[in-house]
């Protein structure tokens, strides 16, 4: 760089981006250059700014900009620290490479010295005994028992197989095929559906005449010729037909994708066969609740939601007189903006008789899961709504809306007997299946081995399909 200058010419204050190992040199050059410019008290600040803007390391620049109250001394210190760390890392890497090279060189030198040490005595005394590398015994030269022996594997004479120095491929997935004294190595890939032959090898073999053979060749294999340098590939079909592989067992993997194997179980809203009857205490007087106000902004959305669940067969309109009329409760889901339709059953719950079925606790379930290594969680799709009610029970759930009265055809959320009734029904569905734990609308299926888990999962999904119980695929977790 040319730092020739004239006094009072600040336009000469220039410096290109510097490499990482010249920070201190750059700082000194900048200070020398600044002496010839009339920067006065701005000199240190301008030099600091040139260092920040001139560095070609984004990491160092980011650290400099992040530093509060950055001065020239701090900037130089940060740059020098980064420069020193880079030098140390470079030195460490070079030391590792040198050590590895030295070890290899020393080993080679030791081997050569040992060989020379063995050869030297032999030159002096041809009849001296020595440890033979051909047979492994100690004997006089020219008296080796392996002399004249020819090893079948390497086709070389005068040594035993144990001391053979020829290298043989231990690859078990490569098959040698001979075509007119030319060897072609095929890689057997049972996952491949086609056979692959590189174009270069095909050109070498295309004009070769086949000689007569006593073996009848009755398998025609189709090859895809590719213009690549990959190894020839023999697929599953050809390998099987040529008896190069033996298929021991074919595993059915339909449970690997339960949604495809059991599409009905993951589609729509299920319906269990036996209807539920709500038992009422006759000593409790029926209550008719007034209509609750619905915000104007939700009226159209409420109307659409009522129509949607009516089409699903969850509710129906009520025209006849009823003893019970409950209040409508609308809950807006925060994430999707959808509405959940419920009713306030506080008065009705005072009259409902519970079945007092024991609900499982977490401790009960975890105790029975001892030894489980594979676990799948199944979630019922709107579980309560899959349990239909008889007509008398339906009218008990009548609720009033701005668009008329409705009643539930399926068991609604909120009534005090819902958990016990649904838990009892689901427990009865899977009671004779091993490795299945139910917790209201969640079902846990487990196994101590992968095969046991998959077999049990298949039985559970079959049972769901038989009884009409559907699952929510978005909330299911399969092992």
UniProtKB/TrEMBL annotation:
Residues 332-478 form the Reverse transcriptase domain. Transmembrane segments: none annotated. Residues 111-126 have a biased composition (Basic and acidic residues). InterPro entries: DNA/RNA_pol_sf, Retrovirus_Pol_polyprotein, Rev_trsase/Diguanyl_cyclase, RT_dom. Residues 100-126 are annotated as: Disordered. SUPFAM superfamilies: DNA/RNA polymerases. It comes from the Eukaryota. This is Reverse transcriptase domain-containing protein.
